[in-house]
Amino acid sequence: MTVTPHPAAPAASPELIAPDTWLIPHLVPAGEGLLLPVNSMVIRGREPVIVDTGAPAHRASWLDKAFSVVEPEDVRWIFLSHDDGDHTGALFDVLERCPQATLVTNWFSVERLALEKPALPLHRMRWIEPGGSFDAGDRVLQLFRPPVFDGPTSRGLFDPKSGAMWIVDSFACLTPGSLDARELPAELLANCMPALNSAVSPWHAWLDPQVYGRHVDAVEGYGARTVASAHGPVLRGETLDDAFDRLRQMAGASIIPTPGQGLLDQMLVAVMGEGVAA
């Protein structure tokens, strides 16, 4: 793999991906003319919902984008899918700017965040586990455990009214720029998505295919028409069907190796010049 300097990531604006449902995207250079999506979401219904709060590196632009879609004082719910930093970057800002909002999370997320964010307001929380739900006025949003995750606190979110699903870190995939999976090269989806799924959840190698298959079936069985994730393009139609099929194939399959020292050496040379990584 050859690493070449990448131009600045293009700006990505909020995008309506389903009724009342906006993707809040950022794109990060990932080499070879590719970009890593770093997404979150806003559901703008009767009781608006912010779904994750972006990465710390994007805090200012995330706030601008999210609050171009919904007024802070209108937000009634903040759904935190899990406690990883790239999902909690603007959490305190959102809590401050959205005084009417309730934070939907779980006990373990709060415990894991305690050393980093000890001032989380317990009186503004709802702790909901997979299989639970909450009423956002004109829709009841359902929580589930996603089929791929890198942390035990991860919870996905499904909106039966719009047919939109937030599947957290599942279905990660680099992109040349588009956030619509139907516009991506088939080869990229076929190779990159399994590799990133494997990197996020290397425990797939020890899964029983039948047991895991039933879990994937259950998530697919929600009937989502639009699936957004934190680090991949938006999936619909055949691209969504193919993505679920790739998940089933992960059970018991060998872990796909991630880049190692060789890539780091190339990156150092690209940034600092020949001889640096020798």
UniProtKB/TrEMBL annotation:
<protein>
    <submittedName>
        <fullName>MBL fold metallo-hydrolase</fullName>
    </submittedName>
</protein>
<feature type="domain" description="Metallo-beta-lactamase">
    <location>
        <begin position="37"/>
        <end position="204"/>
    </location>
</feature>
<dbReference type="Pfam" id="PF00753">
    <property type="entry name" value="Lactamase_B"/>
</dbReference>
<dbReference type="InterPro" id="IPR036866">
    <property type="entry name" value="RibonucZ/Hydroxyglut_hydro"/>
</dbReference>
<dbReference type="InterPro" id="IPR001279">
    <property type="entry name" value="Metallo-B-lactamas"/>
</dbReference>
